[in-house]
Predict the structure.
Amino acid sequence: MGDILVLAEHRQGVLRDISFEMMAIAPKVAEAMGGEVKVLVIGSGIDELAKKMSEYGVKVIAVDDQLFEDFNAEKYQKALSALLDDLKPAVLMTGQTAQGVDFMPALAVEKNLPYVAEAIDINYEDGTLKATRNIYSGKVNATVAFKPADTCLVTIREGAVEAPEPAASGDVEKMDSPLKEDIPYRKFVEYIEAEVGDVDITQSEILVSVGRGLKEDKNLPDIEELAKAIKADIAGSRAATDAGWIPHDRQVGTSGKTVKPKLYLALGISGAFQHLAGMKGAKTIVAVNKDPEAPIFAVADYAIVDDMFKVVPALTEKLKELKG
Amino acid sequence: MKTVVCIKYVPDTSEAEVKVNPDGKTVDDSRFSFDINDADNYAVEESVLIKEDKGGEVDVLSIGPKQSEVMIRMAMAKGCDRATRVEDDRIAEHDPLLVAKVLAGALKEKEFDLVFTGCWGDDFNHMSTGVALAEYLGVNHASMVKKVEVLDGKVRAHRELEGGLMEVVELELPAVLTIQTGINEPRYAPIRGIRQAQKKELNVVSLDDLGVDPAEVSVDASQVVLENLYIPEVESAAEFIEGEPEEKAEKLASILTKGGLV
């Protein structure tokens, strides 16, 4: 009893980081609940992936079947529905990813089980499982308690915790697929790779990145001028690419690129966690934002709370002067 | 095509100071500006684009207060045909599964080919309502959709995965799609549309009108309890540069050049 079932996530033959990150949360919850961590890997030809997860000293359950060659939310829901009845874990945990969000809410409804989406942490205290969420543009945390249930469902935010190093070896147990036949009403068609643009921002030494604060594309020349003065490439947040100010292949964040330049200037970017996940590895981060509460300041090395349109032109002039 | 687009009136907290009320369970929203949830705005546009391309009708469905009618009228000004607004203070707003149950209750008598929702809410970011709604309705779904291709009896949805990869899935209709931002360029409402929108049908209904048992969608019915809200402590190691804008720029320029960063 009290077991934590972690559904590992993989795509195109590679385990995704969230699978390892959950290994920072699941063991402490299992210990508090007096159970053990079991990792579920569902796919086709997944021996290597199952073995890699077992290196966290956990028991891995591998459902290896051609039916799971590609991700399909309907198939995952059907398989998990049967596995929950069979394994009766206290908690089913997976990532709040494009995969997790596509079936977990439906599974919760089907099984009439409590569900908390996008937890940044989970704890078991005084007989109650509690999740911490981060809401309202990252400015507020919420503590949410699960009411007692056979299984509590939860997804974990990507990048919320650091993945631990693998520690010990564990076993892999193969289990027959609970799903026996294909489903006709939802079909995987294909993957389409992201378009490649003129500049690969993952290779840039200096990035000048803009967000919602740019307000409109006619304000771009100020940014281009600054970028030119310091030989930087221009990138943007989701808000800037959605608005069409910046090409999509220059979007920084979980749905775009992960960048590690030596200098990252974030201008008018509030710093949604999806953005932070894509740029917090930059060596030096400068943030200019008029909102003193902007989450971007949490990862910045140098911070300016002000209107970017007052700061940027002056900065460009001064840099030109100093660099001669 | 008959499309229903579900939209929500949310506070813009991206640049606002957020304070938790003394009850510890709500935030002080008296100074927030409210508008349509960002992703829902794209969902409205997508529903109107499909109507313009394939013909048909678009219904708006929203749970919210009287003030949100400004948002609903704006969606109708852009081309949606009619709207239903559910107003009932017994709904557990913090639980997306129960919110979905209410929406399902409002749709159970309706014919539709597609239902759109935004793929995530700017307020609580659960990313759950649309997918839960599909389960209650017993229809197909795809989440985080960044391109919609309507085929004969089917829809091809391009799902946005991490790293810019797209996953294309084919679903039999009817289906619920949760729409991702950036899928289109939301239009501005034309003046003529704004005038016409005032005359379009907007029904206001309660849970009783929908035949939804309040006990099944109330806070007590929720399987999760919102215990408290608090402002997280942010540990910023940043050096905050002070002064007038020009002074700040000058100090930063000097830090960057002296540090060999540029």
Q: What stands out?
A: The mean pLDDT of chain B is 97. Residues 2-221 of chain B form a domain with the Rossmann fold fold (CATH 3.40.50.620).
